[in-house]
Specification:
Keywords: Membrane, Transmembrane, Transmembrane helix. The chain has about 160 residues and is of the alpha+beta class. It has one domain (about 5-160). It has 4 helices and 6 strands, in the order H-E-E-E-E-E-H-H-E-H. It has helices at about 10-30, 95-105, 110-120, 130-160; strands at about 30-40, 40-45, 50-55, 60-70, 80-85, 125-130. It has a 6-stranded antiparallel β-sheet. Helix 1 (about 10-30) packs antiparallel against helix 4 and helix 2 (about 95-105) runs antiparallel to helix 3. The radius of gyration is 23 Å and the shape is elongated. The termini are close together.
């Protein structure tokens, strides 16, 4: 029995499809801002990657929104993964708020802005940002391994004379 050629392999096309979808989401995150609410505890934002919040601002158990990106902040194509925890700072007086607001406006990119923003969140709040390149890598490595395993299996079968090379 001869194995299917590579273009007819479900492993090959599944990997291509998943990586194209992630790449499209990556490109789309530069054009649009998307938010999804899962239950009332998690908020997921799409900005250069998936940013997961520990608690959502919205009470709606399921939902989301998508808007055109209007921020003039520069975005990195390959941002670093970020884990942030709330700083517990309070902005009680006008001077503290103005200083924080000026720092937010002067932030060079969205990651720095998220770090500044988290200073004012309670200490039990967390944010995790996983960039899209990490998702592509997480799919591409096992996909390449599966394709190499398939090629090795076909070569072994051919050397035993079970299939034609």
């Amino acid at each position: 029995m001869n194995p299917k050629p590579l273009p007819r392999s479900i492993t090959f096309w599944s990997g291509i499809f998943v990586m194209l979808f992630i790449t499209w989401a990556w490109w789309d995150s530069f054009q649009n801002y998307s938010v999804a609410y899962v239950r009332d505890r998690i908020e997921v934002q799409s900005t250069q990657g998936m940013m997961v919040f520990g608690e959502a601002d919205q009470i709606d158990p399921m939902g989301g929104k998508r808007v055109k990106r209007t921020s003039k902040l520069p975005t990195k194509v390959f941002p670093e993964p970020v884990f942030l925890r709330g700083g517990g700072e309070t902005l009680e007086d006008e001077a503290q708020y103005r200083k924080w607001d000026e720092e937010m406006r002067a932030a060079p990119d969205q990651i720095v802005r998220a770090r500044l923003d988290m200073k004012t969140f309670p200490r039990d709040q967390v944010r995790l940002m996983l960039p899209y390149w990490l998702f592509v890598l997480a799919v591409a490595l096992p996909w390449c391994g599966l394709l190499m395993l398939r090629a090795r299996r076909i070569r072994k079968a051919a050397s035993r004379g079970l299939t034609e090379p």
